[in-house]
UniProtKB/TrEMBL annotation:
The keyword Metal-binding applies. This is Globin domain-containing protein. Transmembrane segments: none annotated. Belongs to the globin family. InterPro entries: Globin, Globin-like_OT, Globin-like_sf, Globin/Proto. SUPFAM superfamilies: Globin-like.
Length: 143
């Protein structure tokens, strides 16, 4: 599913809105751990660092939508790092669900079905590329 220019604008706009809400990322991690309790062990460093990295990654990914030839390698590198952290392909669904939950909860009246569709498209793109890379890496490691 291609992400349209209008969807890119919705993604950027909603991410900018979320960034200025201090509790938003704390709520995200709480939701993620509620949806997938085993993920609590993945965060060995300060959550503030994770939050900053998460926002930087989303900003780079959204910007990368304009240059797919650079986006795929970025997502592949993220996949490798997350595999090293202990993330599994099964963790993408609770991550996406927690992210959508927090966006909807934090953005309130500004959240729309169009925002949801844009984020679902982006999260699917991210998950598809990263899962493929993780599977490839796991297969290579076994050989």
């Amino acid at each position: 599913m291609a992400i349209t220019r209008a969807q890119q604008q919705l993604l950027q706009q909603s991410l900018e809105q979320l960034i200025v809400i201090p509790a938003a990322l704390d709520d995200f991690y709480a939701a993620l751990i509620e949806f997938a309790p085993h993920t609590a062990t993945l965060f060995s460093t300060e959550r503030t660092q994770h939050s900053q990295r998460l926002l930087i990654a989303f900003q780079a990914i959204i910007k990368g939508l304009e240059q797919p030839e650079k986006l795929v390698p970025l997502l592949q590198r993220l996949a490798q790092r997350h595999l090293d952290y202990g993330v599994t392909t099964a963790d993408f669904t609770p991550f996406g669900n927690a992210w959508l939950y927090v966006l909807k909860a934090q953005l309130g009246d500004t959240w729309s079905p169009a925002h949801r569709d844009a984020w679902v498209a982006l999260l699917r793109l991210i998950a598809t590329v990263m899962k493929q890379q993780m599977q490839k890496q796991l297969t290579t490691d076994v050989q």
